[in-house]
């Protein structure tokens, strides 16, 4: 598909179907287990902390701030809750992605093999994945370096009067963008597409990746359902890559 604009929303739902396929589902077990442990930990910690943070806020804030919150709490608290959920779950998801990166690459390969119909091709042996681990973790480090300065800028916007009114929207859009980068990078990296080249490809057609990343962000905030998000997102992102970014990338792999 060569259309310059496309919706990426449907690729998240497609990921749910792909992870259940024979030849794919057994690659889901390890990423799912890692995600289960970390996001369960995040959920328990977050729910225990929320009430503590709220009490501390009222103890340390000025009287006029408390009055303002009392008047507009119906709007402010839901927005803050959403932002906290996104920040905390993104942080734990980032750790999970570091730990699961080798297995996510194998899952992406299995999904690609199904989509291409090339069932005779075997996944990369895990021994080769272990040898390639420094490069895989280096790729995750590249994502982190990309995320940190931009995340800090987004957070600083919350401190600027007037601008802070739209800061939550900017943060949510940025989170969706990062989710797209995180997961579309797995099939790109499998084909040895350089990180900057991958970014350029996504930036050239932003709406599709943003739609997909938005769905990943949304489901990451839903308790229980978020435990399945990682493998679903890997499968869905691979399908998105296969339909919209595959052809030239395949040439890169062949050349190397």
From TrEMBL:
<feature type="transmembrane region" description="Helical">
    <location>
        <begin position="215"/>
        <end position="242"/>
    </location>
</feature>
<dbReference type="InterPro" id="IPR059112">
    <property type="entry name" value="CysZ/EI24"/>
</dbReference>
<dbReference type="GO" id="GO:0005886">
    <property type="term" value="C:plasma membrane"/>
</dbReference>
<keyword id="KW-0028">Amino-acid biosynthesis</keyword>
<feature type="transmembrane region" description="Helical">
    <location>
        <begin position="152"/>
        <end position="180"/>
    </location>
</feature>
<keyword id="KW-0997">Cell inner membrane</keyword>
<protein>
    <recommendedName>
        <fullName>Sulfate transporter CysZ</fullName>
    </recommendedName>
</protein>
<keyword id="KW-1133">Transmembrane helix</keyword>
<dbReference type="GO" id="GO:0009675">
    <property type="term" value="F:high-affinity sulfate:proton symporter activity"/>
</dbReference>
<dbReference type="GO" id="GO:0000103">
    <property type="term" value="P:sulfate assimilation"/>
</dbReference>
<keyword id="KW-0198">Cysteine biosynthesis</keyword>
<dbReference type="InterPro" id="IPR022985">
    <property type="entry name" value="Sulfate_CysZ"/>
</dbReference>
<keyword id="KW-0764">Sulfate transport</keyword>
<dbReference type="GO" id="GO:0019344">
    <property type="term" value="P:cysteine biosynthetic process"/>
</dbReference>
<feature type="transmembrane region" description="Helical">
    <location>
        <begin position="27"/>
        <end position="51"/>
    </location>
</feature>
<keyword id="KW-0813">Transport</keyword>
<dbReference type="InterPro" id="IPR050480">
    <property type="entry name" value="CysZ-like"/>
</dbReference>
<dbReference type="Pfam" id="PF07264">
    <property type="entry name" value="EI24"/>
</dbReference>
<keyword id="KW-0812">Transmembrane</keyword>
<keyword id="KW-1003">Cell membrane</keyword>
<comment type="similarity">
    <text>Belongs to the CysZ family.</text>
</comment>
<feature type="transmembrane region" description="Helical">
    <location>
        <begin position="71"/>
        <end position="93"/>
    </location>
</feature>
<keyword id="KW-0472">Membrane</keyword>
<comment type="function">
    <text>High affinity, high specificity proton-dependent sulfate transporter, which mediates sulfate uptake. Provides the sulfur source for the cysteine synthesis pathway.</text>
</comment>
């Amino acid at each position: 598909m060569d259309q310059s604009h496309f919706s990426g929303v449907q690729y998240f739902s497609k990921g749910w179907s792909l992870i259940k396929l024979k030849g794919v589902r057994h690659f889901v077990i390890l990423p799912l287990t890692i995600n289960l442990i970390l996001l369960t930990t995040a959920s328990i910690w977050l729910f225990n902390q929320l009430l503590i943070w709220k009490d501390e806020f009222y103890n340390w804030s000025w009287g006029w701030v408390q009055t303002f919150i009392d008047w507009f709490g119906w709007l402010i608290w839901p927005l803050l809750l959403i932002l906290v959920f996104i920040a905390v779950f993104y942080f734990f998801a980032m750790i999970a992605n570091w730990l699961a990166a080798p297995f996510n690459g194998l899952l992406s390969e299995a999904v690609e093999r199904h989509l291409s119909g090339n069932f005779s091709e075997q996944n990369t042996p895990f021994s080769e994945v272990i040898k390639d681990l420094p490069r895989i973790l280096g790729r995750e480090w590249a994502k982190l370096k990309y995320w940190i300065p931009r995340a800090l800028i987004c957070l600083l916007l919350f401190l600027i009067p007037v601008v802070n009114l739209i800061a939550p929207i900017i943060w949510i859009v940025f989170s969706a963008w990062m989710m797209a980068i995180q997961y579309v990078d797995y099939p790109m990296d499998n084909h040895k597409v350089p990180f900057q080249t991958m970014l350029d490809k996504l930036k050239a057609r932003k709406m599709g990746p943003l739609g997909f990343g938005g769905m990943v962000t949304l489901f990451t905030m839903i308790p229980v359902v978020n435990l399945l998000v990682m493998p679903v997102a890997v499968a869905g992102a691979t399908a998105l890559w296969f339909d919209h970014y595959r052809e030239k990338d395949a040439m890169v792999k062949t050349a190397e």
